[in-house]
Amino acid sequence: DDMYCVFLGKAVQTVNPPNASVGTAQIADLAVTSGKLASGVLPTNTPAFESYGSANMTGVADAVYVKLIMNTEKFDTDSMYDSSTNYRFTPTIAGKYYVYGMCGMYSETNYSLNVANIAIKKNGSFYKVMNNTFDASYEPNENTLFVGAVVDFNGSSDYVELYARSNVTSGTSTLDIDESSGTFGAYKIIE
What we know:
Layout: E1 48-52, E2 57-60, E3 66-67, E4 72-76, E5 81-82, E6 88-89, E7 95-107, E8 113-122, E9 125-133, E10 142-153, E11 160-168, E12 173-176, E13 183-188
Antiparallel strand pairs: 1-4, 1-13, 2-12, 3-11, 5-6, 7-10, 7-12, 7-13, 8-9, 8-11
């Protein structure tokens, strides 16, 4: 003879599990959203900065790389960009960063721009260079250049700076680095 007992009950309250008793195996996929995580749990794209020049650089010598004076910060999340003396970014958190720069340039003598360059230098050496060379029969008066690169930083002494160079038929150039035409920035890549 078999006897079966069926208990019909009613839940009257919910009991929370003891602290630290639930592991990842008990959590359903996609049940945790970023809104439910504590601050600082998700990685961010910082340190980061972006800057531009407060004034254009005029009378720039022909065919010479010059450091762009990006002395106005749009933002600098961790105060790692020097906008007053060296105009360089020296992050103290190691990793890969996307570094970018933009500069307009024009000949101060109409229609005589032969070559236009913009470059990212890492620790004083050329890292990435963007080059525009113009046909002698078509020498424009102005050009805007952009350069970008992924750069690995050691988190202590590595730094980057932004340089530009213009080659004109005669005279000097202006480097247009104000907010509308110039920028220098970087942000950490989430790895």
